[in-house]
Structures are given as structure tokens and as C-alpha cells.
Amino acid sequence: MISWAAREHHRFEAAGRPFVYLVPSAAIFALDDTADDVMRRLTERPYTRDELEAELAERHGHAELEDTIAELARVRAIGELIVPGADAAPPPKIFPLTPFPLTTMVLNVTNQCNLACTYCYEYSEDKIVDTENGLKPKFMSEETARQSVEFMLKESGDNKVAHITFFGGETLLNFPVLKQTIAYARQRGAELGKAVDFSLTTNGTLLKPEIIEFLAENQVGVTISIDGPREVQDKFRVFHNGTGSYDVVAPKIQELLKRHRSRPIGARVTLTSGPLDIKRIYRHLTEEVGFWEVGFAPVTTSPGRGHAISEHGYDEMLGQFRELAYEFLEYSVENRHHGFSNVKETLEEIHKGMSKAFPCGAGLGLMGVATDGDVALCHRFAGSDAHKLGTVADGIDRNAQHAFLEKHHIANKTDCSTCWARPLCSGGCYHEAHTRYGETTRPNLHYCDWIRGWTDVCLQIYGELSERNPAYLAQFDEPMAAERVS
Ligand code: SF4
Ligand code: SF4
């Protein structure tokens, strides 16, 4: 007799009703009472149809039960289990077609910084590349930047838009090259019939009227790395002499926000150990400073460092993220803007049904370019010979790229093979894994509870929105514009 079993899924509740997130397809379904009863039974153990009938037909009726089983089977929430365990066959290893077009190039125009943030992955004990005594130039030359533009325009293939993000060190230390690169990329893009979109990340210390004017005029997207109010910012984000940076950056950011109105300006907060008050940081940066949106990321660090977030810290962070996410929900139900970008980004991935073979675009749609023109997985690996994927002069080394993708596919991460959050997490950031375990291939098992907890919160928000304001979700119907640069 054939038995039925639930396929891999995660059940959650939103808007007072149950939902399932189906892991193999990354699809979401709301369940009625009958479907919920069937799914619950089949999650506990395999059932034959007769057993299901015996337990559920009286309550739900034969016809209703039959229809529900058929519907759940159609959406592949349940399946026939002929040999126990057969449902757990390893997923096929699917690779993107190559050559995969480059969507986003992150140009590290300098590896130098005028701040000395204690937790910085580029300068602290966790650094991958020696930017002080190494062989890499401290600043990218105009010539290398031009070659990088040519590289990007070529490697972006048939994409209509190429995204160039300027990064550092402190990006604005090399403003002259940034400025020339934008002019050159515009001209070359126009010649080739391709639009070029520009953005940058900066610590804000070097902003001044002419730079702000240039960024506004050229519609350059700006993300400011800032940790919050003075006492939070000055804890780690300090100058080389140890003084805090808040009083220097705050007025400059105000000026930027006043004059640069052509693109929304975002803040990027690094969360560290110690008492967390995410709501206060959020309120300060949006209501008091005026940022359009704020994204939070836990610090990337090896364990044992003073600023590393503890297990308890992750729990605390999750609780506070949840509160802010529910505030986001209430705003979104009323079609009011809320700037908590972490939840919006995850909602978009959920809506698009993303099921990732790789955690991010690094080495695929996104690459980082070091000051000498070496191309690496992403900006955080730029300049690392061990993570090199080519040069802007010679192009992408397809063999190295293929070997990287082969090695880092989710199918190789056996620890993740039974995790319901893997369609969205896929093992997590390679840089975090490298810092934590010395190996980009390792899944980030130290933060699984946090990832699953946060994904569950976002699924709830998604379920709530799908019931209370489904029109809100329509904004995610468009294809993703660019790879995210974290
Ligand atoms: S790293 Fe952890 S949370 Fe992420 S997919 Fe793997 S097991 Fe799941
Ligand atoms: S998630 Fe990590 S590996 Fe991926 S692009 Fe961001 S920093 Fe690089």
C-alpha cells in the first residue's frame, strides 16, 4: 500500500492562519483546516490513504479530504513514499549557464582608510590582505579604473545596465579616480548602448560640498557606514588617534541628505557585542539624522574577539529585529514607507521564490576589483591571491570560476542538507566563513539559529502582507536590479 509523506517544509503562522514554506520549490502556501491537518499528520510519519481517511474523513468529509490531498500533491507539498527515505534524495547540482553575465562590479579604489574602526575586517587581526605592507598599490590608478570599466562592460554581456560600486578602504580618499571613472564609464556605456549605474559606500568623513554636488548631479547611490548615535558610533568607529568620528560625520551627513535628493541614501550599521538597542539606532538614523533606510549586519569576526556577538547576543538581536520587522509590517499594511531594509530585502527574496545554490552573487554576478586590477570573489576578498578569479586586463579566468562554483555549491554543504532555511541562506557569506573557520567552503553553522529565526520572522511578515495588503508585494515582481553589496 502506497504511503504519503510531507515533503520538506517549514510551517509558520501569520494573520491567524497556518502557512507552509516548501523547501524544494521555495514556494509559500496558505493552508485551510483540512490541508493543515493533512500536513501535520504527514509531517509526523508517513500515512496510507486509508489511514488518512480513517483519521480525517469524519472531520473534513471524504470529498474535501480527497481534493485536499490532490491539491497538496499537485503543489508538491506531499508526495507518495514508496521506499521509506526515498524522499530525502540529494538535490541535483544545478549550475548557472556560463558565461554568466556580471551584474555588479565593486571597485576597491583604495585599500587605505582614514578611520581605524576596531572591528574592521580589512585592518583588524582578521584581515585577509595585507594592505599596509603588501605589494598592492594603496590607490587604484586611473588606467586600472578605465580597464575595469572595459572589463565590466564586456563581462556584463547582454545586460542592459552595468552596476559599478565604489568601495575602499575609505572610498572618497580616491575621489579623483572615482570622478574620472564615472565620466569614462558614462561615455563608453553610451557608445556601447549600455546604461551604467553608480553607487558607493563611504564612512562619510570626507564628504564636502563639491563631492556632494558631484554625487547628486551624477545620481550616485550612497551608503554611509555608521553605527548609530554618538556613544554607539564612537565605541568602534574611531580615527587613528582614537577619537570618535560621530561629531565629524554627523554634520556632513546632514549636508549630504539635504543636497543629494536624486537617490535615496541608506545607512549601514555594524552590530557588535554589548547592549543592543536596535530600535534606538534605527530611530536615530531615520528620524533624527534623516536616512531613508537602514540596514544592519552583525560584525564579521573570528570568535573570541571582544566585539564578537555571543550566542545570547544573537538571541537578543533576533528579538529586536522581530519588533522592528512587525513595525515595518504595520507601516507597509498602510502603504507607508518604513526604512528597515533587512526585512524588505528578505521579503523580496521570498516573493521571488529564490532558491539559492550559492549564498550570494560573489564570483558569479558580482566581483570585486583590487587596486591593481586583480579580480576576486567580491570586494571583501579583493587583493587576495587565494580568491582571485582573473584580472581586469585579461578577463575572468573561467576555469578558476568554474572550480570555485563547483566547490561552493549548496549540494556540497552536507550540514545544510536538512535545513529548511537553505533556499535563502545557502550556507551564508563566504567571507564570514573564511574569517570564522579559515575556509570559504564551510557553512556558517555558528549563526544557524539566528538565520532560521530571522527567516521565520520574514516569512510571517510575508504571510501577513499577503493577507492584509497583497498589493504591497507587487513591487517585488520586477527582476532584481543589482547584486547586493554587503
Ligand atoms: S548555514 Fe545553517 S542556517 Fe544556513 S543553510 Fe546551512 S544549516 Fe541552514
Ligand atoms: S555575502 Fe559575503 S561573500 Fe557574498 S558578496 Fe557579501 S561579503 Fe562577499
Q: What is the CATH superfamily label of the largest domain?
A: Aldolase class I
Binned, the helix content reads 25-40%
Residue windows where pLDDT falls under 50 for at least 5 positions? none
Structural class: alpha/beta
The total number of structural domains is: 2
Write down the Rg: 24 Å
Largest sheet: 10 strands, mixed
Query: What is the terminal-to-terminal distance?
Result: 52 Å
Count all strands and give the number: 16
Please state the second-level CATH architecture of the largest domain: Alpha-Beta Barrel
Bound molecules: iron/sulfur cluster
Q: Quickly name the level 1 CATH class of the largest domain.
A: Alpha Beta
- Enumerate the strands of the largest sheet in spatial order, edge to edge or round the barrel: 12-11-10-9-8-7-13-14-15-16
Number of helices: 16
Shape: globular
Which fold does the CATH topology of the largest domain refer to?
A: TIM Barrel
Strand content: 15-25%
Average predicted confidence as pLDDT: 93
Tell me what the structure shows.
This protein is of the alpha/beta class. It folds into 2 domains: 3-80; 104-401, Alpha-Beta Barrel (TIM Barrel), CATH 3.20.20.70. It contains 16 helices and 16 strands. A 10-stranded mixed β-sheet has the order 12-11-10-9-8-7-13-14-15-16. It has a 3-stranded antiparallel β-sheet with strand order 5-1-6. Strands 2-3-4 form a 3-stranded antiparallel β-sheet, with helices on one face. α2 packs across α3, α4 packs parallel to α5 and α11 (341-351) packs across α15. The relative contact order is 0.13. The model has no long low-confidence stretch (mean pLDDT 93). One iron/sulfur cluster is lined by residues 360, 362, 366, 378, 380, 429-431, 486.
